[in-house]
Amino acid sequence: MGRKFVIYVVWLVAATIPGFAAAQSPGDFMNMFGGLMRAAIIEHARAEWSKLSQSETECIEQGLQNQGYSIDVMVQNGIAPQDPRVSGIRAGCRNSAASLPTPSESTNIGNLSAKPTFDCTRARSATARILCVDQAGAKADWDLDSAYKARSFSLDETARQGFMRAQEGWIQSLNQTCQLQPWQGDFSPAQRQCVLIAYRKRTELYRSQLRGEALAESQLTPEQRAQIQSELIRLGFLNDEADGEFGPQTRAAIKRFQAQSGAPQSEFLTAEQRQHLLGVAQAPGPSLAQTQCQVADPSGTPLNIRNTPNGDIVGAVNTGVSVRLVQSDQDTRGRSWSLIARLPDNHTLGWVYREYVVCGPVETSSGELSMKASKLSSDEAARQCQSSEAETRLIGCTAVIDQRGKGISSTIALADALDGRCWAYNDLGQYERGLPDCNASIATNPRRYFAYNTLGNSLLGLGDVTKATAAFTKSIELKSDFAYSHIGRARAFVASGNTEMARKDFNYVLTIDPANQAAKEGIVALDNPPVNNPPVTAGPAVLPNPASTSPHETAKLKEARLFLTMHRNLSLNRNRSQIYQRLRTKRQI
After folding, report:
1. pTM of this prediction?
2. Are residues 28 and 75 in the same domain?
3. CB count, 10 Å around CB of 388?
4. Which of 56, 84, 143, 270 has a CA between 20 and 30 Å from the CA of residue 489?
5. CA neighbor of 358 nearest in space, from 261, 444, 458
6. Are residues 206 and 75 part of one domain?
């Protein structure tokens, strides 16, 4: 009775104080109270939140995080779920819940990874809107979500709460780190890349803290996790949607599944249990049916199609045609072959030599891009493919690739068009989209040093310094005085902490081009390493990003970070198209 009376008094006072009606931020109301009254308000808010179902709680939590808040923040500020400031998110969650399929209904889980973990139509924060821009954002969001949840459920309840608060603080810090405004709708490539890099680094941090089954779970694809959930639903252990996110309900279902089979209960499945739920025949990684590929015969001639692996020739398919893999097998000599289907009509063509099919995780020639490309003539496509403007070049090179796939001739070689589109994706910060094109360009013309250089920039943008260094080195082997590859390799060396080798590459560029501004700035950056910031003594731990340091960051890595930040938009990209065009005129490509 006493507790109810206190709560009644709280709400009576709240209703009679004019200032409450005008309160807008979560802390406005609580600032008017203190002591016992504050504790009662918090207790009431926590009790009200505890009455919600787990699925509704998770949905509201996601919605609040998109706005930079959380349920814990609401509780600490005395805001209950009935509060008008939460009603919009709660109503949206109820509408979503009403449209969810029942456990008996089949759920389409084949394309979960194409979009982020949240509904982009309700993305209210700048960070969320960036993640909704393209496939790279969706992948970054899914990767972090899986690593975050695996790490969270590796901790005990007390540590988990602190971990969640630290994550919330990190998400909120991205606005300042990446210079984002809450109202912002259009973002620069630098802002988008800042968010994506921060997400990837955060994912790497969490995965480095995982071991055993928790680490294995974090490396599953969204589709694989959803397939596990679907099987748990079918077996009657899970009463929820197969959404690919392993939250509290999925953890409880895992324990029920383990208990039923007499196995020890845990937050995570063992390898044997995963295989049982996934199906033993399923291989790790994205399923073949979800992978976009391109035919890339190194000779540039049509690739033979056979009726069986290394069987009779029944036709041919042009290099550059988009296909998907239906099935893979080996011939009697142990060589890999793939049964392919043409895109977008999914017409099965036959078996081709697997080495001559280059695959990537995303479609690079569909939707609005293909529609714009389809309107270009052969001459217009060739002209736009050589543009210095990234988006124009993207459309033009896509048109060339599509036209060549249909047998239409072009003045632009296929290897040039694939490299040009990869370069365009790099300029737009969509490095993952560029990878398949770079690899296809190299497969089409293995001596093309430009493509190795572009591939190096894609890999460097994705943070794979080792492979990026190898790609730049290959480009230099093919053309020793190609300045761009020396600049690129120097950047990779800086990122790996090898400043001595970076200096050699920068100095070499200056011997062949004394006026090269990128090389000059690189030397200056190496000669003037930044002074370490004083240690941070308060606040949640956040991951290193392009504008901040970390307690674990070495001096060399800090040099690399600041150098890469400084040179993210190097003038070499602005000048590259003119040099490419001069080289094409001289027929050196």
Report:
1. 0.37
2. yes
3. 15
4. 143
5. 444
6. no
